[in-house]
Amino acid sequence: MNITDPLSFFMPGTNGQAILLVHGLTGAPAEMRLVARQLNRRGYTIYAPLLAGHGKDVAALRTTSWRHWLESVDRAASDLASHASVVFAAGICVGGALGLLSAHQNPGTIKAAALYSPCFQYDGWNVPFYYPLLSRQIGWLSRVPFLDRLSFAETSTMGIKDERMRRMMAAMSSEGVLERFPGKGLVEMYRLGIALKKRLPEISTPTLILHSREDDLSDPRHAEYIRSHIGGRRQLHWIDDSYHMIHVDRQRLQVADITADFFEEAHAREPS
């Protein structure tokens, strides 16, 4: 694998199959390492690419849109396909939506997708009161220039229930994880959500949805919405002892094993 940036990572596997792991908004490939190791132990080749505009600072992220992020996933999937007979995609929050859209657009490349903590807007129990207010008005606010110049801090929990793992994530700024995100991030997340909702009925990609009942950033109804509207085969699994970042929180090993089990099912390998 020819990796051109220092933050993406590649782990060769043994079963001839690969999983593209997509990080979330303001995140970086480093946040995917724990779940990547478990999936790699199951035999999968792993590639975690850096999304466009990420890994540097808020100013760099402001210059990109969700379409740029999707192009990053498309390119990464194409590159990974040369290293495996079958490619799957899994991602956290925005990363899951990007992986699913890429799978839909490239059914010959990505055979199935896993969505961790899907989110159309930040409306969980621990977000500041103005996040849902902004999200509900984001359609017209996206036209207001000042929103692009705003930036917002992470919540106190950082989406993680386990305090030790929270400290670990807090130390990842040197690995490209941003401590703040721009207002434009909310706008692009909204636009990505609109694009995904429009396509859900026509998406035939086998899809796994994993969501915590205690998600502090994304209400569980987002997972229910995708399950109810997606056109293809789907499975929804509830996680009970984690917050939003289920791929690094207390049940990260369970998340990885449920993912691997789903990808090992016959329907996940059948042509779309």
TrEMBL record:
SUPFAM superfamilies reported in the protein's UniProt record: alpha/beta-Hydrolases
Origin superkingdom: Bacteria
Serine aminopeptidase S33 domain location: 17-250
Keyword Ribonucleoprotein: no
Any matching Pfam family: Hydrolase_4
Record site: Important for substrate specificity: I160
Keyword Methyltransferase: no
Molecular-function GO terms, alphabetical: carboxylic ester hydrolase activity
Keywords: Hydrolase
Protein name: Alpha/beta fold hydrolase
Organism: Phyllobacterium salinisoli
